[in-house]
């Protein structure tokens, strides 16, 4: 109730504007931005109050069906923040920025990534889809250019010719992915966020992000599944 009653100051507005223009902001940057906005606006600042500061903004965003959400990078486990539009949870909310054919390529790329065993799709496999699109055939050179844009816009990440979903995409589209890929999409057993790149228990099928695996098994001589207690057969990172 206190949060709901809290006033949205210029500091809150400035913080929100930067987050929206960034698309996604890494945790340490968000903390610096929090301090900068409070000091510029001469309002109370406490280094451990970022979550309260964001809760106040979220209470004012609620009627607009928007929310600042926190997510974890599957790469290194670092926190990130993104503004999510709750009214449009499907891939179609990207429609204002991309053409129909570009969106079809994105959906097909997402299929490959989510249905893969390791959460990655090779550029070769994605480019092979380019001339099978229903909307219109796409030349491989054109498809390469579109993939580059998706990486620049932080919907995809690329490493050595392998593509995965960017942290921004996972934060914004978690609900869409969980409801549209019910048979394969899983949440991490440790942090309970959607896990695209994960290790899976061979006995009971639970999944864990690699940074969560690292943290959970740190210092354990024999890694065992947190759910069924069977030996964790994957190579722990």
Automatic annotation (TrEMBL):
The keyword Cell inner membrane does not apply. Keywords: Chromosome, DNA damage, DNA recombination, DNA repair, Metal-binding, Nucleus, Telomere, Transferase, Ubl conjugation pathway, Zinc, Zinc-finger. GO terms for biological process: double-strand break repair via homologous recombination. Component of the Smc5-Smc6 complex. Residues 188-229 form the RING-type domain. It catalyses: S-ubiquitinyl-[E2 ubiquitin-conjugating enzyme]-L-cysteine + [acceptor protein]-L-lysine = [E2 ubiquitin-conjugating enzyme]-L-cysteine + N(6)-ubiquitinyl-[acceptor protein]-L-lysine. RING-type zinc finger-containing E3 ubiquitin ligase that assembles with melanoma antigen protein (MAGE) to catalyze the direct transfer of ubiquitin from E2 ubiquitin-conjugating enzyme to a specific substrate. Involved in maintenance of genome integrity, DNA damage response and DNA repair. Belongs to the NSE1 family. The keyword Metal-binding applies. One of its GO terms (cellular component) is chromosome, telomeric region. It comes from the Eukaryota. It is an enzyme of class 2 (transferase). Its EC number is 2.3.2.27. One of its GO terms (molecular function) is zinc ion binding. This is Non-structural maintenance of chromosomes element 1 homolog. It is found in: Chromosome, Telomere; Nucleus. InterPro entries: Nse1, Nse1_RING_C4HC3-type, WH-like_DNA-bd_sf, Znf_RING, Znf_RING/FYVE/PHD.
